[in-house]
């Protein structure tokens, strides 16, 4: 029903992609995510390829064995050696306990490291991601596509649409990269300044590797070879009324393009479907927002009327698609000063995201399944 | 011909150490140590002149001793031996103005080194995560030592414009720590229970006092080959520590306090004279501050010997154990591990954090069988 205003671009792309992916393909898909075996045609191709596509994740209900394995691996938190051929025996339990105690020991004695942005990799891997994962896997049932478009090494700037009243889409994108990228890359998100003003939120954001959305921080991270995620729509995107869902807002002033150009990293467009409907914002209490110092104060059919229960997001089904990278290294360094080129590139990125959004919406069967 | 170095703020711990160290350098002929109060420590062969830099007599001292290098260390946050905030501010700002005025008049001056602080960047949530020397503060410090430092740097920039022949080096130090240093932050960390701001975990950087002495010497001498020692440089140890991490390594429990109440706690602590909780101190402990030291490395050619973590470890060694020493907590966890999972605990104790080791309890079985 939410697909009402969709203009189908690629009509011939079938809606038939819902058939569950084959179970036998699962193990391979989850364990060793496909590297470069996929052709360069990703954003155009309908995504129903049953082989290596990470989209195969969508059919994970089929293979429970794989899931257990996957979970065991996840519980051991990314330590590359952790994925040994351990089942769910007593040894696994003891290992888990020992790992947990060693973790506890390091935490309470302060024996861990953070980077200059305050990113606490260990805490993020072991705790924060584990807290977000149920939301990601069970609640929103996120399907990730095209994760191989994120380079395995070196910097890249992921540009995504922003929606959902509460920035859950950024967090889900972080889990998607963290859990699915074959090279185990970590996404460093650029967050609005409001995040760093709020107590507790700022502490968690810094520890999860987020930093302030400003050119200095973005460039520093990109030059250090990190994957940086940015949502250039900002509050305009996340706080737009429900009626304007999936319509991309202005992409800021295009500063992200010049930052990527200066750092010489590719831009990876990313389209997120499903986040728009988690909190259908039907109204905006401007006075309350002004009093609290927020850019908007959402009114949804349930919030604030039902109190805390009304603050629960709707359990929509999400799809996160990473598009084909747009290289920037062919431009001369002074190109970052060329406003016309910046506008063109910004538009190109924006168009590509919008286009993919429409395509994903056409393929979507329902908002919740 | 040897240099004549004038050092202000010699009665302080850092000033005293620098005076003792610089006179051992071969290119230095004489050292003149200046402060308003007599130092409690030895100054070696240096000549101590008791003078208040807030008065014009400092010009006479410069002329009398044929001083060619001035190292101005008397820019500090706390008064030495009593005296309120007003006298500290006067020494910082008026003292610097007098000193710079005297330097401007003296034709022999060829080098000026100023001790400043990274607090000139302020601490605000809307600042970039890492400050470089060229970053302008989003929110200028509104008062306290940070504002003094901003003003001092302003006067120094004016002086550098008027006397382009003088090499001026402004060193912005992160929080200086060491086994014997006494700064407001060290005093804070010495509290048995650390009040922190609820919901904020600031990133902190420290620089070791040994490194401070070394970089001051580097700046006071002729630049080494392929380096340049005039300009503004951030000096800080590598790496970052969070306040929560500091508290754990120090073994001191923390008490999170709501931000509005922090000011009251700070005032209360100051009233009973335990520590000086200036507003800028609270802002540092709320939002933290990290600076880039690339310029210092590449232009000044100085790499600190101590990282932030090592500096802090050295500081911890100099202090008594806290209420919750990390060794005790680690021991408690190890005992718990021993009780819960004897098999798993053994490799854990040998190599904590090595993810490969938990596999050990399974494997030793096989070699035994093989051998038998």
UniProtKB/TrEMBL annotation, chain B:
Residues 5-236 form the NAD-dependent epimerase/dehydratase domain. InterPro entries: Epimerase_deHydtase, Lipid_A_modif_metabolic_enz, NAD(P)-bd_dom_sf. It comes from the Bacteria. The lineage of its organism: Bacteria, Bacillati, Actinomycetota, Actinomycetes, Kitasatosporales. This is NAD-dependent epimerase/dehydratase family protein. Residues 350-365 have a biased composition (Low complexity). Transmembrane segments: none annotated. Residues 350-372 are annotated as: Disordered. It comes from Streptomyces exfoliatus (Streptomyces hydrogenans).
């Amino acid at each position: 029903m939410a697909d009402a205003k969709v203009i189908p671009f690629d009509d011939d792309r079938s809606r038939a992609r819902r058939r569950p992916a084959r179970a036998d393909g699962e193990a391979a898909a989850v364990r060793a995510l496909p590297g470069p075996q996929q052709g360069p045609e990703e954003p155009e191709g309908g995504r129903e390829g049953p082989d290596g596509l990470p989209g195969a994740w969508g059919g994970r209900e089929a293979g429970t064995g794989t899931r257990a394995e996957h979970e065991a691996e996840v519980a051991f938190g990314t330590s590359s050696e952790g994925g040994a051929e351990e089942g769910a025996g007593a040894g696994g339990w003891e290992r888990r306990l020992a790992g947990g105690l060693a973790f506890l020991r390091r935490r309470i004695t302060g024996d861990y490291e953070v980077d200059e942005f305050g990113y606490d990799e260990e805490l993020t891997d072991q705790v924060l991601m584990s807290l977000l994962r149920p939301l990601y896997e069970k609640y929103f049932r996120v399907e990730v596509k095209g994760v191989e478009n994120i380079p395995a090494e070196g910097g890249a700037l992921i540009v995504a649409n922003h929606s959902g009243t509460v920035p859950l889409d950024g967090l889900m994108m972080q889990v998607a990269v963290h859990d699915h990228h074959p090279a185990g890359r970590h996404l460093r998100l650029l967050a609005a300044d409001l995040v760093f003003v709020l107590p507790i939120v700022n502490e968690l954001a810094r520890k999860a590797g987020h930093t302030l959305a400003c050119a200095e921080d973005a460039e520093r991270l990109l030059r250090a070879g990190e994957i940086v995620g940015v949502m250039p729509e900002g509050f305009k995107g996340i706080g737009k009324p429900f009626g304007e869902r999936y319509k991309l807002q202005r992409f800021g002033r295009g500063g992200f393009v010049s930052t990527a150009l200066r750092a010489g990293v590719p831009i990876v467009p990313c389209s997120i479907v499903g986040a728009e409907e988690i909190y259908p914002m039907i109204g905006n209490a401007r006075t309350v927002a002004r009093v609290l110092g927020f850019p908007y104060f959402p009114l949804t059919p349930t919030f604030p009327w039902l109190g805390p229960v009304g603050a629960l997001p709707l359990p929509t089904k999400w799809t996160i698609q990473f598009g084909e990278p747009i290289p920037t290294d062919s431009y001369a360094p002074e190109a970052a000063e060329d406003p016309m080129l910046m506008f063109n590139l910004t538009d190109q990125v924006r168009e590509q995201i919008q286009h993919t959004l429409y395509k994903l919406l056409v393929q979507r069967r329902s908002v919740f399944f | 011909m040897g240099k004549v170095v004038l050092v202000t703020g010699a009665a302080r711990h850092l000033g005293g150490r620098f005076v003792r160290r610089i006179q051992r350098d071969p290119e230095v002929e004489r050292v003149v140590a200046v402060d308003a109060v007599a130092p409690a420590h030895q100054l070696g062969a240096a000549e101590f002149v008791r003078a208040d830099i807030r008065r014009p007599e400092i010009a006479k001292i410069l002329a009398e001793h044929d001083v060619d290098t001035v190292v101005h260390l008397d820019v500090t946050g706390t008064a030495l031996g009593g005296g309120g905030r007003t006298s500290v501010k006067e020494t910082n700002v008026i003292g610097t103005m007098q000193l710079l005025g005297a330097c401007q008049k003296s034709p022999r001056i060829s080098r000026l080194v100023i001790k400043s602080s990274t607090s000139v960047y302020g601490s605000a949530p809307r600042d970039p995560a890492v400050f470089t020397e060229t970053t302008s503060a989003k929110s200028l410090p509104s008062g306290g030592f940070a504002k003094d430092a901003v003003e001092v740097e302003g006067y120094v920039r004016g002086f550098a414009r008027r006397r382009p022949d003088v090499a001026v080096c402004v060193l912005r130090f992160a929080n200086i720590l060491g086994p014997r240093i006494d700064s407001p932050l060290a005093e804070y960390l010495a509290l048995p229970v650390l009040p922190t701001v609820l919901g904020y975990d600031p990133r902190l950087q420290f620089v070791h006092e040994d490194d401070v002495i070394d970089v001051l010497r580097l700046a006071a001498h002729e630049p080494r080959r392929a380096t340049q020692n005039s300009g503004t440089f951030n000096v800080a140890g590598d790496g970052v520590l969070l306040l929560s991490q500091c508290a754990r390594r120090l073994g001191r429990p923390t008490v999170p306090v709501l931000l509005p109440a922090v000011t009251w706690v700070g005032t209360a602590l100051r009233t009973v004279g335990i520590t000086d909780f200036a507003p800028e101190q609270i802002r540092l402990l709320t939002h933290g501050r990290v600076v880039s030291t690339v310029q210092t490395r590449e232009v000044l050619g100085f790499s600190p010997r101590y990282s932030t973590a090592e500096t802090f470890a050295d500081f911890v060694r100099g202090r008594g154990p806290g209420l919750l020493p990390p060794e005790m907590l680690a021991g408690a966890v190890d005992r718990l591990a021993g009780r819960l999972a004897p098999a798993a605990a053994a490799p854990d104790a040998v190599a904590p954090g090595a993810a490969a080791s938990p596999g050990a309890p399974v494997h030793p079985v096989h070699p035994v069988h093989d051998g038998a």
